[in-house]
Amino acid sequence: MKLIIDTDPGIDDAMAIAYAAAAPEIDLIGLTTVFGNTHVHQSSRNARFLVHKLGLDVPVAEGARCARGAGSHDPSAHVHGSEGFGDFTDVPQIGSNHSLTAAEFLVAMAREHKGELVVCAVGPLTNIADAMQLDPAFTRNIKRLVIMGGAVFCPGNITEHAEANIYHDAIAADEVFAAPPETVLVGLDVTLQTLYEAADFEALAGHSTDIGGFLRDISRFYLKFYKEIGGLEGCGLHDSTAVIACTHAPMFGMVETGLQVVVDGAEIGATRPDPSRPGIRVCRDVDGAGVVSLFTERVASLP
């Protein structure tokens, strides 16, 4: 399966990209970057670093620096650290970005791999909305859009109403859901059922000393946040669960509904069922233990 991950690395993004690199079912053909967990220039630097560390030969195309109608973005440094990788702050600049913007790259790859390309968006949906605006055929050219975002049947995580990726550009998310391609939404309804604990990271590092060890080390900051804020003993495999949904749909229970996003006011970013809109598949149940096991099995095969 040909895959592009639209990403804002990010600790859980790093885990998802490592999974995609290890999964034999996935042919990762590029990363597109967006603001979110970090500023977009940090997202791109982190993505290029991960590509190098994982030994991948894939381009990184830089995208949106802030949300629709915004002039700046305030990253989630308290969740992912000042540079996106927890206490690992000396992230080297390796290589350079693709000459195309993220939206241009998405449109070009969708045309080149018409009917084959799956796009997995694990950050704010600004680049996806930009690609849809740039080329109306984009939604028909891709095979599927898989989104890590939303909290349709459960509370949010950035506010009680909203999940962070949707919240950070509610307008772009609402544009995507107004006229979506074939779409699967992998939100907090399922990702919080895939907790990965400190012992899991240690076991992973025991098999994969380089990549697994790196993920263990950067996760400590992330695990501390989950413990202090949510009282949880592990972190959700948010972005990795979305990548797994790209190839292992039977592990998920889904319902079909249209969605609307609240774009202003106290409930901005809320994802609400809207039967008047085109239906997308919303994940409501998951084999959480199976996702955790599959993640470990795949990433443990890396050096």
List keywords for this structure.
alpha/beta; globular; eight-stranded mixed beta sheet; 303 residues; Inosine-uridine Nucleoside N-ribohydrolase, Chain A
Give an account of the 3D structure.
With 303 residues, this protein is an alpha/beta fold. The protein has a single domain (2-299), classed as Inosine-uridine Nucleoside N-ribohydrolase, Chain A (Alpha-Beta Complex), CATH 3.90.245.10. 41% of the residues lie in helices and 18% in strands. It is built from 13 helices and twelve strands. It has helices at residues 11-22, 40-53, 77-80, 102-112, 126-134, 138-141, 164-168, 170-178, 188-191, 198-207, 211-230, 238-247, 288-299, and strands spanning 2-7, 27-33, 60-62, 117-121, 144-148, 183-186, 195-197, 234-236, 252-257, 259-261, 271-273, 280-286. The strands form three sheets. The chain has an eight-stranded mixed beta sheet, with helices on both faces. Helix 2 links the parallel strand 2 and strand 3 (60-62). Helix 4 (102-112) crosses helix 5 and helix 10 packs antiparallel against helix 11 (211-230). It is globular and about 50 Å long. 54% of the residues are buried. The model has no long low-confidence stretch (mean pLDDT 97).
Secondary structure tally: strands: 12
Strand order of the largest sheet: 3-2-1-4-5-6-12-9
Please give the domain count: 1
- What is the CATH C level class, in words? Alpha Beta
Radius of gyration: 17 Å
Overall geometry comes to: globular
What percent of the residues sit in helical stretches (DSSP H or I)? Answer: 40-55%
Reported CATH architecture: Alpha-Beta Complex
